[in-house]
Amino acid sequence: MNVRTLCLSILYDSEASGYDIRRMCTEGNFAYFVEASYGSIYPALAKLEDDGLVASRTELQEGKPARKVYSITDAGRSAFAAELSEPLGEDMFRSPFLLFARFAHILPRDLVEQRCNEFLQRSQDGLKQLDGAPDEHNCTPADMWVINYGRAVLQVAEQHFRTHMHELITMARAEPQKDAAE
Amino acid sequence: MNVRTLCLSILYDSEASGYDIRRMCTEGNFAYFVEASYGSIYPALAKLEDDGLVASRTELQEGKPARKVYSITDAGRSAFAAELSEPLGEDMFRSPFLLFARFAHILPRDLVEQRCNEFLQRSQDGLKQLDGAPDEHNCTPADMWVINYGRAVLQVAEQHFRTHMHELITMARAEPQKDAAE
DNA sequence: ACTTGCATGTAAGTGGTTACATGATTGG
DNA sequence: CCAATCATGTAACCACTTACATGCAAGT
């Protein structure tokens, strides 16, 4: 999923500026799929306009910089549909935490405990993000389907982790004698 | 998780050639975290050797090309542990399929059905890969912990998908009249 | 006075993939 | 005879990130 496709997917339902797109894919429920930086979004939008897949209009605002609002064209819609019709790339999951976990036994216990707590926190935050916001009025049924799938998966992930994290902590190296020689 | 760290993590428990590493991270239970190509593995190993974090020895074989077997050094072990002790990057999940699913309503039904079946198949394959192979004798407890976590998550993912995929299919655009006028 | 938010964009750098180059052996 | 497996490596290319450049307004 390149940034180009990400932009088309967001513009499919509503117009937006580069800035909007960035926010949607870092905060909104698009964070799911991709996260893109300004450095990739702005050039992608410019190229999409060159190719005639999106059109732009500059919106002046009082007290704020002008926004360049992009909207998808008919050509853009069919290009996007065509792209989705091609064979899909494989889903992928990259977990620095799980690599860390595999080596719990060579790491100090307090570090493992700390990282576990951080991970639990992030799991809970992710879940909360999916629980908040989305409702029938601002989401299509397909959107809801995706959100529910995500929710189901994140829920067990969080639950499993919560009930098994202590095992991971006990595997960790016992504290390397802190200077608590009281 | 860059390829450099991937190599160190694999070499931590046993020596291996670049070729071995490639196989382990595409087939083995390392596929979990990263997937790397030869074009990144070989240069990474060379650089690790330059830095003194791994050592190599050339193993001649009859009827097969020579293998360059790498093993981790003490410096490598501590460098790896140091890397794991730094703040972890965020886990991430990229799903071309979920993007596809969000747009089920604009896509032809038979395509959606096909992609759903493919996705189900891949889910089941992924699960089978985790169920096979790993046992106490070739895995550390931490390895088993990670595998069990993955198993728990993949299991509900597959189960949820299997019971809800038909909803997604019914959202898809009705067939654009095939020439089956029998 | 300073930071934060809004807003757009570029240039340099990074971390990878794809394709290529090479070559021997085994199995269909 | 051709394809696949084993095995190492390089070069060209790509997508994306980071950091930079700019600037104004509102809140602290």
TrEMBL record, chains A, B:
Gene3D superfamilies, per database record: Winged helix-like DNA-binding domain superfamily/Winged helix DNA-binding domain
The Transcription regulator PadR N-terminal domain, residue ranges: 8-81
Transmembrane segments: none
InterPro entries associated with the record: Tscrpt_reg_PadR_N, WH-like_DNA-bd_sf, WH_DNA-bd_sf
Name listed for the protein in its UniProt record: Transcriptional regulator, PadR family
Lineage per the UniProt record: Bacteria, Pseudomonadati, Pseudomonadota, Alphaproteobacteria, Hyphomicrobiales
